[in-house]
Amino acid sequence: MELSGIVQSLENKIILITGSTGFLSKLFVEKVLRVQPNVKHFYLLLRAADASSPTQRLNKDVTGKELFRVLRKKHGLAFGSFISEKVTPIFGDVSLENLGIKDSDLEKKMHKEIHLVANFAATTNFNDRYDVSLAVNTMGAKHVLNFAEKCENLELFLHVSTAFVCTGETSGVILEKPLSQTLKESSKNLDIIEEEKKLIQHRLDELKAAQASEKQETAAMKDLGLERAKFYGWANTYAFTKALGEITIGRHLNRNFPVVIIRPTAVTSTCRDPFPGWVEGFKALDPMVISVGKGKLPCFLGDYESFFDIIRSKDRFANVNSEYDLMKQIPGDMVFSHTEPTRIVKLLEYAYDYFLENPVWTGRDTDQTVRPVFFPTMSSFQLHIDNNYTVPVKEQKVQFAKRLAELYEPYVLFKGTFDTSASNELRMWSKAYYGPGEANIFDFDPKHIDWKDYMMNVHIPGLINMLLNHI
User: Which residues form a coiled coil (predicted)?
Assistant: First the structure.
């Protein structure tokens, strides 16, 4: 099929990607390189994790991954030269001014050339160190936008956030609006970020004076982040600092380019593109799924009215981000929520059915697979544990279930509904603008899924494959 529209709009474009080793950014880069080989160039910002060169890190942590196998097969022996022509890896850090780019000539070249800046950089640990989370998720957003504002030919700034920036709102419809329009008054304080930076530094100075160990400092910073998040109404440090990142972006008013914020919920494996079942890392739904498989989740939170907002596949997320031509025509700023609410009980029951049929763990009998008992509130969950688990041999299993329930309580018992009007409108525009053929290639319609088939035949097998190959 001859493609135009979305694919054509990416031709000869020069794109800066931050957070380049993350699974969502890799998916986006792979998709564009595969469907539009005439994209002019990618600049990929990479953190210098070790003594390797940027090119070595690119090969190891980005293009060398299994995700690129379809593209690698397509180009054969020319794959390396194709990547060298299309991609420039750069060591940098979003937590620093000018993204930590030290080559002034390269920086000037980028400012002159770049058409699209896509900020994927984030620390997604729910309760990471507060200083780290604020530096990356909040100040990082500011630094990337500052860099974008210097790009002379910029057509679009794309910021990947999370739908859970709105978990300060626990019920009702969560609107697709810039966060500054929906936050509580206490969170709109223009000085909040500077105040939090001072608070962090004060706590670090206290720890240094007390000669705290690195382990003690890390624990203190994690506790501070959770304390400040809950003070302002957020469930955890991740959601809070990502929210502050959106606030920071909203304050940059002197722009002559559109800003698009994508708010995905929890993300699972690819559904079909570039192949089904690709997953990297152990996030979102996966700890619960694997815990069911190992018999470590005898009880959990949820009922048939409890929804767990996820995106069933990373490829659908990449397809949203690829709607470049439409997004750059947006007047002003736009927020797109990308979510697919489904019942947590059903998802974990599918996991139970899968592991009952497929006892994949070495030395494990099928009778070790336990169907979780679900409770609609944390208090009823705790009461069940208090009344039924006193035998020491079961204590470790129950403690694990408790920790998992406490971590996921804000999400599995979340009563809000994410408005997806803008995303639905973008999908309709896409079909009308490009036609049904190309719109299907970049499909991100949440209705096009059979959850049982996806869980049983795509996601869980992909997850198991990843775990068995990395354990």
Answer: 183-210
Please say if 242 is a catalytic residue.
yes
Token output for 357: 């049929």
Those residues whose C-beta lies under 8 Å from the C-beta of residue 170, and which sit 6 or more positions away, are 414, 415, 416
Give kind and range of the element (H or E) at residue 436: helix 436-441
Does this model's pTM top 0.70?
A: yes
Check 13, 142, 222, 242 and give the catalytic one: 242
Q: Are strands 266-267 and 259-264 parallel, antiparallel or unpaired?
A: unpaired
Cα distance between residue 470 and residue 278, in whole Å: 14
Q: Per the residue annotation, which of 13, 43, 130, 238 is the catalytic one?
A: 238
Distance separating the N- and C-terminal Cα atoms of the chain: 41
Q: Give the span between the Cα atoms of 352 and 144, in whole angstroms.
A: 43
Is residue 389 among the annotated active site residues? no
Q: How many CB atoms lie within 10 A of CB 295?
A: 16
